Amino acid sequence: MIHYKSNTGGSEVVDFETAILDGFAKDGGLYVPTQLPTISSEQLSSWSSLNYVDLAFEILSLFIDRSVMSESELKHLLQNAYLTFEKEEIIPIYKMKSRSETYVLELFHGPTLSFKDIGLAFLVNLVNFFLERKNEKLSIIVATTGDTGPAAAFYAVNKTALNAWILYPKDRITKEQERQITTIDALNVHPVAVANCPDGGDDLDLVITKLFANKSFKEKMKLSSVNSINWGRIMMQTVHYFYAYFKIADSVGEKINFSVPSGAFGNLCAGALAREMGLPVETFVCANNENACLHRIFDQGLFLKKEIQETPSSAIDILIPYNFWRFLYFTTGRDQDKIKAWMQDFKDNGALQFDPITRQEISMGIISESISDQLTLETIKRVFEEENYLLDPHGAVAVAASTKLESKLNKNKLVCLATAHPSKFSNVILKALQPLDELPKKAIHPSIEIAKRRCEKLRICEYIHLEEAIKYAMLSQMEKSDSKY
Please, are residues 138 and 21 in contact by the beta-carbon 8 Å criterion? Predict the structure, then answer.
């Protein structure tokens, strides 16, 4: 049977269903499988012509024991999860004209126009499936820097087993992203705008961690999360790396490279695990914006919390890349005690300097770069002018980083991940494309325009009061709905 445990070793081994419904492990760590599957070249070859949904079924079956979920149940859930996507192929791929053998993986064709749709289309429905089978209810709480929140809210709508609390730092996500959250008219979706967060989404993550550590409150509310702390998100995100590989590689075994815009490190963590499972990836480019939280780690071995900067690529304005702890577990000998000690050291000191051996281990096959705001804007403009293709700010960070690091990459095919539709960042696009004074059609999407004309529904609170305010709001809502949590 496939089991899951905390990467810090302080809780019991659990099955897949428990790991998904818990979100955090009971000791506050992150769930990881007790072993990663190894995929042979023969297995890869047999998958190479599968469509996205069928490929996802094969990969997820390696992590989900049949005693927890049957083959037919998993197939049904996957087939229904992606019905709301705009493109039949789920993830289209664009071949760039201005760069040799460079491709853009368009991960933004879901209903909320970001790559978070790909993971959450499955995960939220999976959580609901488990709850309905157990005849239970759950409160999911999500902190978002712009993309997770809209996707979590969309997929939670009218699910009777779920109440969704979506927290976001007020004035630190775009107006388009905010309206995707606040214009959802569903009794079980509760947007919360949090004012005066000095460190943006990282502040919200800290409060959520405290709520999970409050055992009586967590149990009363049946609290869980679908952020990328949840193993289900990481597991699901491995699929698009396999999918891109099969679409681009000429034959199984050919090495390719990926450039990934990175903040909390969930997406790149998934890619690294895909490679460890057997996907032939030579190099990952960890593409950071000016906050450089991950670039400092890979370049200097320094895990450091600094003052956050607001950048055009706001969804990756992150200081504490919490999925790095999961990645660190897999790349440094799977030593739970070591992970726990490192996490405590960082918590106590706000900084952690890795030793030379650890630096070597984490940097195998990964190079990094920090991209300035100006270069982000210049990349959007250059690509648009050269080939009439519009990158969002995060895709631009990925393209710019791979360009700066071109001399360190072998002449393999390169896949740059575009994680959001440009329509979610209209002010950034206008600034990048000056002297144009109006948005090009490629920066406009009907769903965003509709959201502009709808009423908003939200709660607002100050960050200094957030922990008590959100507890009061959640308990009050529970009493109103007379739910049995």
Answer: yes
What does the alpha-carbon distance between residue 257 and residue 249 come to, in Å, rounded to a whole number?
11
d(CA 207, CA 386): 45
Write the DSSP symbol of residue 355. P
Q: What is the DSSP string of 244-309?
A: HHHHH-SSTT--EEEEEE-SSSHHHHHHHHHHHHT--EEEEEEEE-TT-HHHHHHHH-EEE-----
Stated as kind and residue range, the H or E segment containing 6 is strand 4-6
Q: In what order do the strands lie in the sheet with 162-169?
A: 223-224, 138-143, 162-169, 189-195, 459-462
Q: Please name which of 410, 427, 335, 309 lies closest in space to residue 5, comparing C-alpha atoms.
A: 335
Active site residues: 116
How far apart are the C-alpha atoms of 404 and 270, rounded to whole Å? 24
Residue 365 is which amino acid?
Answer: G
pLDDT tens readout for residues 327-383: 999 999 999 999 999 999 999 999 999 999 999 999 999 999 999 999 999 999 999
Spelled out in words, what is the top-level CATH class assigned to the domain 93-113+231-442?
alpha beta
- Answer yes or no: are the C-beta atoms of 122 and 114 closer than 8 Å: no
Q: What whole-number distance in Å separates Cα of residue 314 and Cα of residue 424?
A: 11
**Structure-block tokens of residue 54:** 């069928």
User: What phi and psi, each to the nearest 5 degrees, are found at residue 319?
Assistant: -105, -35
Q: What is the pLDDT of residues 221-249, one digit of tens each?
A: 999 999 999 999 999 999 999 999 999 99
Identity of residue 473 = A
388 token code pair? 């009439």
Omega before 435 within 30 of 0, i.e. cis: yes
Question: pLDDT tier at 10 (50, 70, 90 boundaries)?
Answer: confident
The tally of CA atoms less than 13 A away on the side-chain side of residue 120 is 30
Count CB-CB contacts under 10 A for residue 258.
31
The answer to whether residues 180 and 112 touch, using CB atoms and an 8 Å cutoff, is yes
Count of Cβ atoms closer than 10 Å to residue 382 Cβ? 18
- The residues spanned by each domain of the chain are 93-113+231-442
Q: In sequence order, what are the residues at sequence separation of 6 or more whose Cβ sits closer than 8 angstroms to the Cβ of residue 397?
A: 261, 287, 288, 289, 313, 316, 371, 376, 379
